[in-house]
Design brief:
The chain is α+β, with helices and mostly antiparallel strands and 542 residues long. The chain is built from 19 helices and 19 strands. The protein is globular, with a radius of gyration of 22 Å.
């Protein structure tokens, strides 16, 4: 039974399920599978439509991280496509401008976008339908427009000032200075033309041709420090994911520079406790998860950086020996303050997420983002491409920090998504937007499903907590808060406060993720889709 008043019904299917924050994208993905496509084909079509229809959250100017499960081979593939800092973006330059933190918006907050390369990597590796055919629905929605849904309209209204700062951005998104309202039809013909070029010429058309030169010129005219070679050099990384075993589930996560390892480290730490004896959303259960979060995030902030630039012990952080040491730091009845560093053992807000599964057992977990709402706020004139603010949001200017900005470096990335298998078959596929909330939300969903036996839609709708701060350089030194959603039981809040947690109740409707989830019942061969009522999305099935 749902714990909130926002209840929806789960959807069930045998042949395919799509859970997306865009009903338009979900419908397109379902139609692809109904016409004979696989989950991989559907996922690419969904990603492209979301990049048009969820304007503030994702797009060709953003990044993508993907997990793809192939039922024939039983293998999970990791696709990371996040871009680098500009050739002229070195820490000393920004310090010389009197800055202690990176600019959070504007041209200096942009990193090279990874979305187009992710599309091509997915298509080349897995898809069966021609690339241009899968991008065609996105091109149609960009050219002809789509009606703006309620929450998207509110996001536009709340960011009108940012959209007005740059002429090319205002030309696309403002009419007589006004952002689109609920039900208005929003078109972006320049973006339609850009996607059409990608459909015809692949990622090369985006990164290595006249379009790349046009984007670099637009960014640099606004003040950025890119070279065309920054775009020319970009490629998606196709690798094996990282994983741990949790209660019989092999839990997969996206590989660094994604911070997906945080979820796996937390699962390892809590794996030595019996959560099945604890009531979901009870104070003792939340306390354990929050304390594990503090440890993992402390490790990320002290150690993690772009693996091409920083040598840090990922395998050590995910080892059982390290989890045993860290687990001993958790007091069972008292909230911790500062987390004491340990030397690891040696080792041999705005985003959107969707998932797709088909009747053949294939599944895709895909997260993509501009970082903050509307990213940098910068559109390159004539392209319709709204650029991310990942460099501004993620990099540090602190000397010696593992995540300090440097030319050609990727920031450690909040984007991550998960997928689990049991006995080699996909079991759970899920994720959420939400920056540093993402691994914490995943921890709550997975323990609810696996330890608590909660049904998928109830797990999605259950009141959530968010331990703040996380990893954002702008807020990482602020006092700690345990932010809980309205609907959290009163006795839970009381007991957490007694344990020493600084509990803050968020007003109803406050942003605390928009989970999309699919589970698979191997005995009945039934897929269950769940979609978060905190967003405009939906799950669809057939």
């Amino acid at each position: 039974m749902s714990i909130t008043s926002l209840a929806r019904s789960a959807v069930f299917g045998q042949h395919g399920v799509v859970s997306s924050n865009s009903p338009l994208a979900a419908s397109v993905g379902l139609r692809v599978m109904q016409d004979g496509g696989t989950a991989f084909d559907a996922a690419l079509a969904v990603a492209a439509v979301e990049s048009v229809a969820i304007v503030p959250m994702c797009g060709l100017g953003g990044d993508s991280f993907i997990l793809a499960y192939d039922a024939k081979s039983g293998a999970v593939t990791n696709i990371n496509s996040s871009g680098t800092a500009a050739a002229g973006a070195d820490a000393e330059y920004y310090r010389s401008q009197g800055l202690a933190l990176m600019p959070i918006q504007g041209p200096h907050s942009v990193s090279v976008p990874g979305e187009a390369a992710a599309w091509e990597a997915m298509h080349r590796r897995f898809c069966t339908i021609p690339f241009a055919d899968l991008l065609a629905p996105a091109i149609r929605y960009a050219a002809s427009g789509f009606p703006v849904p309620p929450r998207l309209a509110r996001t536009f209204a709340g960011n009108a000032e940012l959209l007005s700062r740059f002429r090319a951005t205002a030309d696309v998104y403002l009419t007589n200075g006004r952002p689109p309202r609920e039900g208005d039809v929003l078109a972006n013909p320049d973006l339609a033309n850009t996607i059409r070029q990608v459909a015809e010429g692949g990622a090369d058309a985006f990164y290595r041709g006249p379009l790349a030169a046009q984007m670099v010129a637009g960014l640099n005219n606004a003040g950025a420090r890119f070279a065309e070679s920054d775009f020319n050099a970009h490629q998606a990384d196709v690798t094996e994911p990282i994983s741990v075993n949790y209660r019989g589930h092999r839990v997969y996560q996206t590989r660094p520079p994604s911070q997906g390892f945080l979820l796996l480290e937390m699962l390892n730490i809590i794996g030595g406790h019996d959560l099945t004896s604890m009531t979901p959303n009870s104070a003792d259960a939340i306390h354990l998860l929050v304390e594990a979060k503090k440890i993992a995030y402390s490790d990320r902030n002290r150690l993690a950086g772009d693996p091409d630039f920083v040598d840090w012990p990922l395998d050590g952080l995910l080892s059982s020996e390290y989890a045993d040491m860290r687990r001993d730091q958790i007091h069972p009845f008292q909230a911790g303050d500062e987390v004491r560093p340990l030397t690891p053992v040696d080792g041999h807000r705005d985003t959107t997420y969707f998932c797709v599964a088909d009747g053949a057992g294939n599944a895709v977990s895909w997260i993509h983002s501009l970082s903050n709402a509307f990213g940098s706020g910068v559109v390159a004139p004539g392209t319709g491409v709204l650029f991310n603010n990942r460099a501004g949001r993620g990099f540090s200017l602190e000397p010696g920090h593992p995540n300090v900005i440097a030319p050609g470096k990727r920031t450690m990335h909040t984007l991550n998504c998960y997928l689990t298998t049991v006995n080699g078959a996909v079991a759970i596929v899920g994720g959420t937007p939400g920056g540093d909330l993402q691994p914490q939300c995943a921890l709550q969903i997975l323990t609810g499903l696996i330890d608590g036996g909660i049904k998928p839609q109830d797990a999605v709708e259950s009141p959530r907590w968010h331990s703040f701060p996380g990893t954002d350089p702008a807020t990482v030194n602020r006092p700690g808060e345990l932010r809980v959603e309205m609907g959290m039981p009163d006795d839970t809040i009381r007991d957490l406060t007694r344990m020493g947690h600084n509990v803050v109740q968020n007003p109803l409707g406050s942003y605390i993720g928009r989970v999309q989830l699919i589970t698979r019942d191997p005995r009945r061969n039934v897929l269950t889709g769940a979609s978060d009522p905190r967003g405009d999305g939906q799950a669809v099935a057939y």
